[in-house]
Structure formats: structure tokens, C-alpha cells
Amino acid sequence: MKQNKRIEKSTVVHFHQDARFFVERGLRFLNRYDYDKAIRSFRRAIELEPKNAEYQCHLASVLAEVGNFEASNDILYDVLEKCEPKIVEVYFYMANNYANLEDYEMAEEMAIRYLQQQSDGAYREDAEELLDYIYFELDMPPRHFLTGEREDVYSKHERARRSLEEGRFLEALDILKEIVEADPSFMPAWNNLSLAYYYVGDFQQAMATIEETLEREHGNLHALCNLAVLLSHHNRAKELVALINMLKKVVPYHPEHAYKLATTMGVLGQHEEAYRLYAKMLKSGRTHEACTYHYAAISAYMSGHKEQAIRWWQKVKQLDPESGVAEHYMEMVKEAKDGQTKQVIPYHYYQPQQEVSWEKAPASGVEELKNDPMIRASLLWALQHGRDEVKFAVLQTLALIGDDEAEAAVRQCYHQTDDPQLQKLALLALADMGAEMPEARPKRKAKTKAATEHKLEFPGSETDSQKTEGVEDCINRFFSGSGQEDMKNWCLSVWKRFSQLEKPPVQVRKIVAWVAALEYLYGAVKNQKHAQSQAKVAEKYELSPSTVAKCVKALQTLDLK
Q1: What keywords tag this UniProt record (predicted)?
Q2: Sign of the torsion formed by the C-alpha atoms of 200, 203, 206 and 208
Q3: Among 372, 376, 375, which Cα is nearest to 357's?
Q4: Which residues contact 306 (CB under 8 A, 6 or more apart)?
Q5: 3-class SS at 467?
Q6: Quick check: 198 and 230 in contact, CB under 8 A?
Q7: Among the listed residues 454, 404, 399, the one whose alpha carbon sits nearest the alpha carbon of residue 426
Q8: In a domain, 455, yes or no
Q9: Range of the domain at 285
Q10: Neighbour tally for 68: CB within 10 Å
Q11: What domain count does the chain have?
Q12: pLDDT 10s digits, 235-261
């Protein structure tokens, strides 16, 4: 028996627990979501091989998973400084950690470093999405610009955003139109484009741009908020009420979204809802600008929370003592008697006594006119929608301002109006600015019956009778000219095959969009030398490029060769 025990002892094999053993063990724990044991295993592996960058990254990943982002970044910094500085992916991991810590400047820094060193890396799209979120969802201007294809988009959009803030709306409009034409997937530009149209008083284009934005991204909160304001302007009460009820159910994840939603609710007169959102946002502990506290105070006052309104205006006074805004409104609130009808306060950050009346502004007040975005917006609105005498006053005021933006607005008025008196005043305003005179406009011919009928035949203009047509009817009507027989027959054949599919086609409001898509595909497949771009075809049919693209994508499920 003793001999057997000796044999057993001599056959025991020593179990060697090296660093790889602990890493594999840690990965098994990680797969079972046992983070504590995974962390212990990875730490043991690092004790055995302290210079192994892979093991360090495993530990950093688990620490980030449990929300310990600072500790994770400490390890990642060690990887770069002491272990393996060539592991570029570390910059992307650190960017995510900083984003979770809401240190977006450092998140931007690390994402840029990753893209600069590995522009075609595995995390490229994720890094670019993070930058898009920082720049445009959070409305933080970029401090660095990427080299390569994205540089123009970021820098142009930042320039457009500044132009909007400073009241150069026509300039912003031109830049934003360039951006969405060059990169239709760039959603922040669509949101600001709708605002630019709104500020210059082109409500029809503002609405069309919002619809285009929502067609591309159905739940875009900025677009939905802009739509609500526009519906309010047009007094479309039924649609507005439905949209407000929907927006009230939104729970914004990030403070910037909460700010947009709160301000929109305030502008729409939903002060109690605005107050709830502002109160939640201001409790987060983040730093906020004076205007945010001012808007929150307005919502508090308008919804009956007088004492809280005063407290928030006191905060405004601390942050911006020179403006006098807080003192004015605190005095107004304190003097208001109980039961007295509340004076409506607009959600703008200025003191009412400091407003400039552009209709009566002397030459000495020109600098204030130039530098106040709200006044510039009111000038452009009035030039579009005001009475004749108001338009005359606006032209005189724009002549006083005399900068590039004012000149562009006057030229636009000259080319758009049919009123000879207004044209004459526009020319005088340009002369006062010392601007170059525009070419004489050709006189418009009266519309004859034939001309009217010809216009009705244009593809994008659908009459009531044409809206009832099917796609085949439209193909026959649009492609009935000489030399179009082959295209007509090809389009009819493709549409017949497509309409026979079991899966229903995508929902497109305009029948003519299918015709436009078929014409584009015919050029791409059968007539490549003279093929047109989707944007050109969309312009011809007076459709949005995204609508044509949607139809093209659906039709391409067929074998079109």
C-alpha cells in the first residue's frame, strides 16, 4: 500500500499556469458576462507578461464594458507609451471611452488621430459616425479637419453654421445646397438647410427640405422639431397637435437633443413640457450657457413656476452680468401682480428695450442691424411676405447695411418681383451700395392657352387627372416623341415585370417617380454614352434625388441586362 502511494506521487504532472492560460480563462469568463472574474484573469496575465499589448487591450475592453472608462484609458495610454505605439486601434478605443465620459473634445482628438493614421482601417466608419455625432448632433464646431474627401464637407458645414448664427442666411443657403448636392447622406446639412430656407422666408422650400430629410431618416428629431415650428407658422393645427403629442413621448438621450426639444416646445407654447425638459437637463450637473438658463426661466414663468424662474434668471445674471437680460425679466416678474395675465416672453436672448427697429433705423444704427441675426431674418421675411410699403422700407435698410448678404437679397428681389416700382427701388438700393447693376430683365410674355397646355405636359407637374394615371400611361405619354420608341418599349417591359412581383413595390407618392427611375435605368443599361445622373433626371422631373434613388433601387432587383 505504501508502495502504491509512492507511485501516485511520482506520477503527478505539474500544471503550468502561464499568461496565455489566464487570458483564455478571462475570455471564457467574458463570454459568460462574468466581468469581475474576467478582470482578475486579465490582470493575472498582465502580471506575468507586463509588456504584452494584447493582454492590456483585453483588460481595457472589460473595464470599459463595466463603465470604468477612465481606468480603461489609463491602460490604453500605457499601451501607447510603454508597450506598442503602433497599435492604431487604441486611438479608436480611447475615442469611445472619452465619448462615454462626455469629454467630446478628447473624443474628437482620438478619432481624428485614428483616421489620420489608418484611413481605411476596420473602424473607419465607426470613427466617422462618432465625429458626425460630435459635430452635428451635439452642434460642436470641429477643431480639426480631416484630410481627404470628408474635409470639404466638415469645413463647409461649419462655415454654413457660422453664417446662420451671424445672420448671413443667403450665404448659408448657398453653402448648404452645395453640401447636400455633393453628399446627400450628410443629414446635419439637410436640417440646417431647412432652417436657412425658413429664415429667408421661403416656407415652401423649407417644408420640402424637411420632408426630404424625414424621407431619408424618419426619426430625425431636429427635422421633426423644425416641422412642428413650420406647421405652427402655417396654422395647420390638426397636423401640429398630432406631431406635438408624438414629440411629448420622445425621451431625448442626450442633453443637446433635450435642448432642441425643450426650446421647440417653448416656441410652440407648450411651456409646461418645455419646463419639464429644461429642469431635467439642468439637473445633470453639466455646464450650460446663460441663454439656456434664460429659456428655462421663461418656461418656468410661463408655466406658473415663478420662484424657479427667478432662481434661473439669477443664474443668468451670474453668467452674463453685462447684458442686463436677467435684471429686466426679474424686475418684470416681481412687478407682475397675482392673477394678472402673463406677458408673453419670446424664446430669444435679448432685452426688449435693446431691440432695433429696422423700419426707422438711422444711419447711426447700421452696425446693430448688421450684427443682429434676428433683425436680418426679419428683413428677409418682410422682403418675401410684407406689404409693399414694408418692402420699400426693407430695401432702403438693406442699402444702408450694404454688405454682400444685403446685396444678394436686393438682387434676388429684383429678379423675382414683377412689380415695376419694387424693381426700380431695388436698382436704386444697388446703386446706393455702389454695386454692379444687373442686366435688364426680359419682359415676361403673357401665357397663351398653348403655353399653358405645354406646361401641363411637363413631367413633374401632375394635374388631378394625371395623378390618376398608372405608370404605363405615364410612360406612353412622356415617351411618345420620335426617337423614343425603343426607350418606351424597354420601360414598359421592365415595369410589367416589376409590377408582377409578389413583393409589393415601395411606397412612392408620385407616379412620375417610377417613370424618372425607368428613364435613368434605360440610360445606364442601354445608352451608357448618353446616360444622365440620378440628380439630373430628378431635376428634369421636379423630384427629389432620394425619391428617384428609392425607385431605382427597387427596380434594380430585376435583371435589367
Answers
A1: Repeat, TPR repeat
A2: negative
A3: 375
A4: 300, 333
A5: helix
A6: yes
A7: 399
A8: no
A9: 269-337+344-349
A10: 16
A11: 5
A12: 888 889 999 999 999 888 777 788 889
